[in-house]
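Example S7 (structure tokens).
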């Protein structure tokens, strides 16, 4: 992928403020978990009202952080607009600071809303949401079939917003030290939220392995693989080509937990068209072996099309050959054709993804 997005921490962390209704706290927690990776890379420094300790003036604390935040997230739902405090203080202040150029405000659509109605009243928000809201296409987070991918999409947009804020600063601070310790097995990272991030990724992979009737994977190894990918500061994108994408939900959820974006294509033609139109770059292509439309070796056609088009990214075949003889034959065919590798189980796939992206 292009080097313009890395390293992440070219300046001091961007201060981030969550404006949300407490009825949406579980959704905010899920977003915070995804953004934790941006935090440990030194890109953001988040704050929300649950950080207020007993005895502090909660109104003053909110006001101080709201006025100082570089990036303000508006977590939109009917509950958000039902809060007099949010509308009268947080939203009003956020829009005033955005208008003055003092802060970047990003609306995030958590639940379905009448978007056209948001431009009425004293605090018009609909146009801002349509221009710079997340997730993509303003599909509410709760309406995504794969929730982790919704958060991945939001996180990607916020990464770009934070990088833009950092690039506008005249005096970048020294980049923080690289993360370490994420390959440790056992005691954990020492950060409870980061351990939750790792646990979600490992749980998704274990569930995917069970769905494929594979042997129980070593959770310590999964944590090590996931930790290595999380510690990588470079934004990563994969193109996954499979005419049955729902068969890979667990694997995709795990990759989303690690902040790896997965773009789906159903056919070889779709994949090649996606690559031809793409402007961001892909780090890896994953393909099934065959597809229903009379293509017993669709992976070979796709790999050939990629190479003829000048795409040199690693290519991995993910298939379901369970017999040892068939598996060995397919592995040999994939290797002979120039594939980076093949896998039949999620733990094997994750190991290949790590090696393809990180060279380890």
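Recovered sequence:
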């Amino acid at each position: 992928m292009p080097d313009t997005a890395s390293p992440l921490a070219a300046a001091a962390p961007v201060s981030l403020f969550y404006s949300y209704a407490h009825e949406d706290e579980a959704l905010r927690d899920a977003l915070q978990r995804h953004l934790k990776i941006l935090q440990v890379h030194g890109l953001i420094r988040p704050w929300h009202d649950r950080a207020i300790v007993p005895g502090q003036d909660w109104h003053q604390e909110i006001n101080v952080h709201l006025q100082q935040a570089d990036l303000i997230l508006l977590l939109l739902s009917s509950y958000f607009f039902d809060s007099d405090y949010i509308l009268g203080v947080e939203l009003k202040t956020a829009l005033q600071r955005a208008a003055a150029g003092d802060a970047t405000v990003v609306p995030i659509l958590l639940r379905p809303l009448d978007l056209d109605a948001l431009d009425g009243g004293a605090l018009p928000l609909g146009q801002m949401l349509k221009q710079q809201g997340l997730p993509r296409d303003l599909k509410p987070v709760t309406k995504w079939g794969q929730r982790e991918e919704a958060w991945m999409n939001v996180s990607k947009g916020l990464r770009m917003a934070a990088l833009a804020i950092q690039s506008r600063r005249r005096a970048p601070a020294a980049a923080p030290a690289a993360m370490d310790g994420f390959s440790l097995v056992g005691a954990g990272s020492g950060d409870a939220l980061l351990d939750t991030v790792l646990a979600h990724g490992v749980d998704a992979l274990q569930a995917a392995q069970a769905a494929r009737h594979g042997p129980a994977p070593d959770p310590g190894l999964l944590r090590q693989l996931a930790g290595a990918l999380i510690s990588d500061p470079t934004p990563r994108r994969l193109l996954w080509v499979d005419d049955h994408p729902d068969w890979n939900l667990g694997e995709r959820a795990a990759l989303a937990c690690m902040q790896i974006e997965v773009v789906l294509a159903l056919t070889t033609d779709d994949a090649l068209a996606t690559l031809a139109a793409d402007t961001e770059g892909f780090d890896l292509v994953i393909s099934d072996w065959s597809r229903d439309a009379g293509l017993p070796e669709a992976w070979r056609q796709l790999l050939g099309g990629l190479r003829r088009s000048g795409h040199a990214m690693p290519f991995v075949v993910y298939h379901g050959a369970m017999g040892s003889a068939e598996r060995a034959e397919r592995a040999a065919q994939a290797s002979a054709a120039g594939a980076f590798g093949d896998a039949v189980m999620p733990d094997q796939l994750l190991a290949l993804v790590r090696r393809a992206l990180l060279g380890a």
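Notes on this example. Residues 1-10, 172-187 have pLDDT under 50 and may be disordered.
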